[in-house]
Amino acid sequence: MTPETETILVTGASGQIGSELVPALRKLYGNDKVIASDVARPSPALENSGPFEKLDVTSRQEIGQLVQRYRVKVIYHLAAILSATGEKFPQKAWEVNINGLYNILEASRELGVRQVFCPSSIAVFGPATPRVNTPQDTVLSPTTIYGVTKVAGEHLCDYYVRKYNLDVRGCRFPGIISNETLPGGGTTDYAVAIFYEAIINRRYTCFLKPETRLPMMYMPDCLKSIIELMAADFSRLKHHSNFNVTAMSFSAAELAAEIKKHLPDFEVDYRPDFRQAIADSWPESIDDSAAREEWGWKPDYDLAAMTADMLRVLVEKQRQGRLEYP
């Protein structure tokens, strides 16, 4: 089978990455070849453009039935509980992030799935990790349950590569900025909310300090990295489930200043909450040279280009009366 004829399953398809990855994959491989799944209701666009199945990844039986019914050969496993939400519900985070991943890997091993993508995160790093230009291979000392599950998940995925020759791949994503999906419980989600607040209210209260610098990536680059990694020659990969990837690093104040170039009357105040401690445990910048060397990773967007495009898209949605924000 070639990728063009294989059936693809996407878990967590209603989430931030999934809601945009599914249309991208359907454009590449055909609407009927990409099965979207989630425990949450899909958007009308997602549901109407191709198959959608309700799926709880903590149920091995449900996963197995779905894989067999559609003869799935490639899985993009995106279902997860994110950092800030995970701190509120740590037991649920473990159940979904670890047991869900284990169920996906076991179903893949048993039922002949050829390839699995499972994203990791900069949350795997921690206070003992170098914060500037964080290396690919370094100390992993997470302080959140989300980070703990991602470290365990990386090792579990690599074990299946070594033990069962299952082709599992993944990126350690930084904060992802999207003009389609609303903030969903992540510590870096301020960098999405700030755009909506800037357009709607011309004011934003940030839950991080102004000098807090974090690595980030615009959604088009996120999708590009996933698709390019999955298409890369397996024999070239020295790493598998834990590639550092990034596109830019900026502080909350630098992002606000960039937005003010377009909206001069925009104002920001800062009231750090519990997410500040999470952000302080993460890197300021990332060394993604391994991804560049092993599969040719190169981002397209920097801070200026991302900001201009975000505002352009959201302002146009507002003009058309389609800008939704709680």
Description:
The chain is of the alpha/beta class and 326 residues long. The chain folds into 2 domains: 7-174 and 218-244, NAD(P)-binding Rossmann-like Domain (Rossmann fold, 3-Layer(aba) Sandwich); 176-216 and 247-284 and 301-319, Alpha-Beta Complex (UDP-galactose 4-epimerase, domain 1). It is 43% helix and 16% strand. The chain contains 12 helices and 14 strands. It has helices spanning 18-29, 44-48, 60-70, 83-88, 90-111, 145-164, 190-200, 219-231, 252-260, 275-280, 289-295, 303-319, and strands spanning 7-11, 34-38, 52-54, 72-77, 115-117, 120-121, 167-169, 171-173, 175-177, 203-206, 213-218, 243-244, 248-251, 267-270. The strands form 4 sheets. The protein has a 6-stranded parallel sheet with strand order 3-2-1-4-5-7, with helices on both faces. Strands 6-8-12 form a 3-stranded parallel sheet. Helix 3 packs parallel to helix 5. The longest helix is centred in the first third of the chain and has 22 residues, at 90-111. The model has no long low-confidence stretch (mean pLDDT 95).
In short:
This protein has helices at residues 18-29, 44-48, 60-70, 83-88, 90-111, 145-164, 190-200, 219-231, 252-260, 275-280, 289-295, 303-319; strands at 7-11, 34-38, 52-54, 72-77, 115-117, 120-121, 167-169, 171-173, 175-177, 203-206, 213-218, 243-244, 248-251, 267-270. With 326 residues, the protein is of the alpha/beta class. It has 2 domains: 7-174 and 218-244, 3-Layer(aba) Sandwich (Rossmann fold), CATH 3.40.50; 176-216 and 247-284 and 301-319, UDP-galactose 4-epimerase, domain 1 (Alpha-Beta Complex).
